[in-house]
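From the shared-data thread, chain only:
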Amino acid sequence: MATSLHFYTSGESHGPRLLAILEGLPAGLPIDISAINQYLQRRQRGYGRSRRMQIESDTICISSGIRHGQTLGTPVGLSIENRDWANWQQEMSPEPPDEDFVSQRQVTVPRPGHADLAGAAKFGHQDMRNVLERASARETAARVAVGAICQQLLSHFDISVCSCVTNIGGVEAKVPPHPGPDFFTAAQASDVGCADPEAATQMRAAIDQAQQDGDTVGGIFTVYAYGVPPGGWPAGCCPYEYSGN
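Structure, as tokens:
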């Protein structure tokens, strides 16, 4: 019988740390912790990144579920420290504030394109910082760590997942019909995730222009999965049946 993977994340953008729990992994799966950190570092790279990426230096801390480099079959607990917490301790403290405390970082006007308004309506918050601290790009660091572990599970079945950026700000990249390993290596080495050098140059220019205009640009990325069984796993087949050490 196949086992399902489930994960949960927790933590605020300027809180002490981000947390994640991943359950459903089989016991005895070798885990390369350095590979998780490589994915976290890759997340922080990229042209036009915000100053927050310069503040943080993400490293995974595993608190449960892995012993001596192998999974135990129990939930895996992960955490990533927020270095910027040092500048937000009073503002984001879980303890009640002092009587004379006045927040200097309240958000009372919702920002377009964010979750501020929807979150305030759902939870009844007057200060929308209570929404944006969770609905933040910072939260994706925990998801990257979880995904890095899942990648290692897939690799045991010769399944690989690759991606590349194909469009930023309307600039379209050339992608071959059947991209191979060299193509994805070039995409990973690019600071815009694009393996087409000419398009990458134009993408950087589009980002620079948007920053000058006080605007942002959208983008498109494509994900490729290789080695996936046609139609998925057969009924009753457990993909976790492998010979571990």
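Residues 140-155 form the longest helix (16 residues).
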